[in-house]
Specification:
Oligomer: heterodimer
Strand content of chain B: 25-35%
Number of strands of chain A: 5
CATH topology of the largest domain in chain B: Alpha-Beta Plaits
Order of helices and strands of chain B: HHHEEHEEHE
CATH topology of the largest domain in chain A: Alpha-Beta Plaits
Number of domains of chain A: 2
CATH class of the largest domain in chain B: Alpha Beta
Strand order of the largest sheet of chain B: 3-4-2-5
Helix content of chain B: 25-40%
CATH class of the largest domain in chain A: Alpha Beta
CATH superfamily of the largest domain in chain A: Lrp/AsnC effector binding domain/regulation of amino acid metabolism (RAM) domain
Helix content of chain A: 25-40%
Structural class of chain B: alpha+beta
Shape of chain B: elongated
Number of domains of chain B: 2
Distance between the termini of chain A: 19 Å
Shape of chain A: elongated
Number of helices of chain A: 5
Number of strands of chain B: 5
Structural class of chain A: alpha+beta
Radius of gyration of chain B: 20 Å
CATH architecture of the largest domain in chain B: 2-Layer Sandwich
Strand content of chain A: 25-35%
Largest sheet of chain B: 4 strands, antiparallel
CATH architecture of the largest domain in chain A: 2-Layer Sandwich
């Protein structure tokens, strides 16, 4: 896979965009000591090179009424009989399921689920998750805290 | 608490965070002035914390992503604090989560390839303090990455 190489100015720009993707090229350029057109060209290159793929809103989940986030490790009971696609399609259709990762290790899938509270989570688990095609062992870990790090840029 | 108008605005905004206020107002069927006022309030009250750029690490050459589930030695009173401080210093750690359950902490670690991962694991991860047990889940594929909440 070809990957884009970043110079120090790109890295500084990416770090700022990670914090606030709504800032315009003029504003970012001023902070980094670059002209508006030069900054704009760099942003464009990062987007076209697939480094910046979009924007995402950051919420205080609790204030939105989602008091509980749970990570589930799911092991399929009947691999081969029920296809992975069936499981993936069904799990992706559950609105409370935020992310689905196919993983190698102790579990086959890792899910992130949001719920209003623990009893709402129980409802999702019983009615939606446990009834998924092929589902076997499920392990739940309730999220206490989370921080996103800037990563190696 | 949020009312139906707030929810409608956020529902449409999270589908496309880049859209102009005018498009958002049309989609949510609310006047533009209301959209602006509501969004300002959601920011002021800390419901909406910001808008971040989504970075695709694969495009930067990080092909490997591993989820490390870690159990800490809780006989050490400072286990959590010491561990978190040290984990924050590893640049390849892109996410740190703490849990109530069988797992205490989870780290998302990215690496260029398996050789790089092996080096990272040995030199930067296993050297983190107070680890009692560690197990790895290697990401094969991201099946769903919904950035929208069921509002």
């Amino acid at each position: 896979m070809t990957s884009i190489s970043l110079d120090p100015a790109d890295r500084a720009l990416l770090r700022l965009l990670q914090q606030d993707a709504t800032r315009n090229a003029g504003d970012l350029g001023r902070e980094l000591g670059m002209s508006q057109p030069a900054t704009w060209r760099r942003i464009k290159r990062l987007q076209e090179g697939g480094v910046v793929t979009g924007r995402s809103l950051r919420f205080d989940l609790e204030k939105l009424g989602f008091g509980v986030s749970v990570f589930l490790g799911v092991k399929l009971a009947t691999k081969g009989r029920v296809s992975l696609e069936d499981f993936e399609r069904a799990v992706s259709a559950i609105p409370e399921v935020q992310t689905v990762e196919h993983v190698l290790g102790l579990y086959d899938y890792r899910l992130r689920v949001v719920a209003r509270d623990l009893s709402d989570f129980e409802r999702v688990l019983r009615r939606r998750i446990m009834t998924l095609p092929g589902v076997g062992d499920v392990e739940a870990n309730v999220l206490l805290s989370e921080e996103r790090r800037p990563g190696p840029i | 608490m949020l009312d139906d108008i707030d929810r409608r605005i956020l529902r449409h905004l999270q589908g496309d965070p880049s859209q102009p206020i005018s498009a958002l107002a049309d989609a949510a069927r609310v006047p533009q002035a209301t959209v602006t006022r509501r969004l300002d309030k959601l920011r002021q009250t800390g419901v909406l914390l910001g808008t971040e750029a989504i970075i695709n690490w694969k495009a930067l050459g990080y092909a490997v992503e591993v989820s490390l589930r870690i159990t800490l030695d809780k006989t050490q009173t400072r286990a959590f604090d010491d561990f978190l401080v040290a984990a924050r210093k590893v640049p390849e750690v892109i996410e740190i989560q703490t849990f109530l359950g069988r797992v205490d902490v989870r780290l998302s670690v990215i690496a260029r390839d398996m050789t790089h991962y092996q080096t990272l694991y040995r030199d930067s991860i296993l050297t983190l303090p107070h680890i009692a047990d560690i197990e790895a889940l290697m990401q094969v594929a991201s099946v769903l990455d919904r950035r929208e909440l069921p509002l």
